[in-house]
Design brief:
By secondary structure, this protein is of the alpha+beta class. The protein has one domain. It is built from 4 helices and 5 strands, in the order H-H-E-E-E-H-H-E-E. The chain is globular and about 50 Å long.
Length: about 150
């Protein structure tokens, strides 16, 4: 896998887009659902987020976002665009964590980044190799396991 600097810049930009959208969607989830541990969540303890009921009887979050809280993650899917974003729950910084496969899936389902998936023949392994290379370049830090975050 050879990725030129222009493509690498696009991938790094997509990582920033992922983080920005993750913050928007987590804020939307907190505001639009009946979370039992609201005070703890508002204090930044996002591991307290659960698959709670949506307020006002809606079936999905505003802007057509479906969500599923599972374990230490929350998957969001836009029911119109089919864009998928998996978010790590923990604290506010955890939202910026990237898993190689989940990030590939974000690239694959995001209109402005779909063209980047052709650089990854094996979605998980190739993306993990890229993350590890970015770690060696001091552009990413490994949080644990296969979770990374931009510096």
């Amino acid at each position: 896998m050879v990725i030129g600097s222009k493509i690498l810049d696009e991938i790094l930009e997509a990582m920033g887009q992922h983080k920005a959208l993750a913050h928007i969607l987590i804020d939307k989830l907190i505001a639009e659902t009946d979370q039992p541990a609201t005070a703890e969540i508002e204090a930044g303890n996002y591991y307290e987020i659960v698959d709670a009921d949506i307020l006002n009887g809606n079936e999905n979050l505003t802007d057509h976002w479906w969500f599923d809280v599972h374990g230490e993650h929350c998957m969001f899917k836009n029911l119109i665009t089919n864009q998928v974003l998996e978010v790590s729950l923990g604290d506010k910084e955890s939202i910026g964590n990237l898993d190689p496969y989940f990030f590939f899936n974000f690239l694959r389902t995001t209109d402005s980044t779909k063209h980047l998936i052709k650089y990854f023949d094996n979605p998980f392994v190739d993306m993990l190799n890229l993350f590890e290379e970015l770690e060696r370049q001091n552009k990413m830090v490994r949080i644990g396991g296969v979770q990374f975050r931009l510096h």
